[in-house]
Design brief:
single chain, mainly alpha, 5 helices, 87% helix, 0% strand
């Protein structure tokens, strides 16, 4: 139980830290957010939990392929905001577009024989 609490505290602390830094500098906040901290933490927690290099390799491959559709969020959201759409409307629309791109990516990868 203590292990899970430590995982949550470390993960949450990073998210809050990035949010706070972003208030002062969007550049530094963007740099910190773009570093795959959650993926790296996920790999660390996965390795500690399983000790499996194979699972880490599979996880890393999945993250690689799924980063591509996630980029749609960072294209659609600013476009909608520049069109003067409310943040609270633009964000869910952007998230739906991103989910659609995830499904498309998984479908395409499956068709070309890449298993995630």
């Amino acid at each position: 139980m203590i292990y899970y609490i430590i995982k949550v505290v470390i993960s949450a602390t990073l998210i809050v830290a990035i949010s706070e830094v972003s208030k002062k500098s969007s550049l530094i906040g963007g740099i910190l957010a773009s570093v795959p901290l959650l993926s790296v933490l996920g790999m660390i927690w996965l390795y500690i939990d399983t000790g499996s290099n194979q699972k880490i390799a599979q996880f890393s491959t999945s993250v690689f392929w799924l980063v591509i559709p996630s980029l749609s969020l960072f294209i659609v959201l600013p476009l909608l905001l520049k069109m003067k759409m409310s943040f609270y409307v633009a964000l869910p629309i952007s998230l739906v577009v991103m989910v659609i791109f995830y499904y498309l990516m998984i479908f395409i990868l499956t068709k070309v024989g890449i298993k995630l």
